Each structure stands twice: as structure tokens, then as C-alpha cells.
Amino acid sequence: MSEPDPDEPPEPRGTLRPTSARALTTCVVLGLVGGWGVHPLMTALTGSPPLVSWAQALALVLVAAIMVFLAWHTWQTVQVRGERLEVHQSVNRLVLARACALCGALVAAGYLGYAISWLGDASQYADRWILRSLVATAAAAVVTLASLALERACRTDGGEGRP
Question: Please, is 41 exposed, middle or buried when counting C-beta atoms within 10 Å of its C-beta (0-12, 13-18, 19+)?
Fold first, then answer.
């Protein structure tokens, strides 16, 4: 192995911090406001509010199940067995985890805001949209939590030995 060239700057070592509470809170606030506002806005523009189908909620349940499995599998590989992931696998999982954590928070809050917008509505469909929105909210919240768990499962000591 050759000595590093003293004229070459050292290879940069970056640090990637976990998804911040500030970013998650921002997504939740935007989601609540957007979800709550879409009901009256779409009713005013089109005459009918957006519909929430079981397919939407079940799609989020599927994504939640995938994220839970991936977080568990990564935890077992990296933290329990002490194996290292390939660099591209780590990066892919970290990017996926961060994106799903932020989007999951936004979507969960959006569906919750939409459910809240139906409270007190005398429509015959109000109970149906509230239930479906709450199921979608729960599934998206699981996506967020599993994504945060995946992000933490990818953490290593950075190539430095532990004391």
C-alpha cells in the first residue's frame, strides 16, 4: 500500500445526521393544513370533495409493511450480526429512509387533516371518509416510524473502532 501524497488534501469524510425533528414537524404542519384545506377548496372548485378509497389506504399499508421489513432486516444485518452493507446499499437505504420518513409524515398529517375537515359534517359519506382517512393516517405514520428505524439501523461507527 502506498503512502498518501502530502500535497493531496485528505479524502473528505462527511457526516450524515438523522432526519431532524424540525423537518418532520414542518411536514406534519404542512400536511395538516393541506389536508384540512383540500376539502373546502375542492368542494368550492368542483362541487364535490376528493374521495378516499380503500385502495389508497391499503397502498400505504403495503408500503408500511415493506419499510418495517427492510428496517428489521437491516437492523439484523448491521447491528445484530455486525455485517457491513455495500456502500451503494447503505446509500440507497438511507435515501429511501429519509424520503419515506418525510413523505410519510406529510401524508399521515394530510389524511388526518382531511379526516378532521369532515368532523361535524352532516353528509352521509362523512363517516366513511373519516374512517378511511384514519386508516391511511395510521399506515402513513407506520411508514414514517419504520423509515426512521431504517435510518438508524444503517448507522455504523464510521470505520472507527469503539473504545
Answer: middle
Question: How many C-beta atoms surround the C-beta of residue 100 within 10 A?
Answer: 25
Which pTM value belongs to this model?
0.85
Which three cell numbers, joined as nine digits, stand for 78? 448491521
Q: What is the spatial distance between Cα 149 and Cα 78, in angstroms, rounded to a whole number?
A: 13
* 18-54 pLDDT, tens digit each: 899 999 999 999 999 999 999 999 999 999 899 999 9
Give tens-digit pLDDT for 111-137.
999 999 999 988 888 999 999 999 999
| Amino acid identity for residue 139 in this structure | A
Q: Which residue has the cell 447491528?
A: 79
The CA distance from 150 to 155, in Å, is: 9
**What does the alpha-carbon distance between residue 98 and residue 73 come to, in Å, rounded to a whole number?**
17
Collapse the DSSP code of 10 into the 3-class scheme (helix H, G, I; strand E, B; otherwise coil) and give the result.
Answer: coil
